[in-house]
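Hey, resending since the last one bounced:
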Amino acid sequence: MNSMDAVVVDGLRVRRGRHEVFDTLSLRIARGRITGLLGPSGCGKTTLMRAIVGVQRIQGGSVRVLGATAGSAALRRRVAYGTQGSAVYADLTVRQNLTYFARVLGIGRDQVDLVIDQVGLASHASRAVAALSGGQANRVSLGVALLGSPELIVLDEPTVGLDPVLRSELWDLFRSVAERGTTFVVSSHVMDEALRCDRLLLIRDGRLVADTTPAELLADTGRSDPEQAFLELIARDSVAHPHLRRDRREAS
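The structure tokens again:
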């Protein structure tokens, strides 16, 4: 692992019952960038993110994060994880939520107002989360992830269920935070979000189909639409591995 890597996954093996999610998966994620983890539902995105934050039981291989083993106590404040959906209390205000989580993390209250400003909710700080829009509630969850200025933020489909305008607002926020040096790993099955990322990891059936950039993806496939480009890669992968999907169904 070199100083440019935020995450190094080497030969990762994960099984759930009789189903093999990953078989010797290897990849690297660079520091200070937004890396998109893209692929259809059920392809292994969430399992990989859980492995990165150290809450996934693995059967083999290794996951190194910021120079330490994933899940190490030393990473507690350096890595933040946002699960799918809102992870805050709807009956508490924005400030109350952030104050509570800051206390749990042992972070000074001075961080609370800083983060509220950072996610653009200063004018809504005294409102209950239940009274906010979907996009605003997601900003509160992101604010919790930002507490303590983590070096790596892992977000599992943070824009799911949001309309295009709200999704765009959140991605603008991710970019503004990343420009200050924070590394993001953001999963999505919405292919147009690929163009918002610095690098793309495209996953299918638990395998890394491509490690590329948005420009390289479009150029390689000759497509102007990221969804069509991804489908082109899927078609190529199906030709290269014609028996894979059948074998995985039989294994499950």
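Residues 85-149 form one domain.

Sorry for the duplicate.
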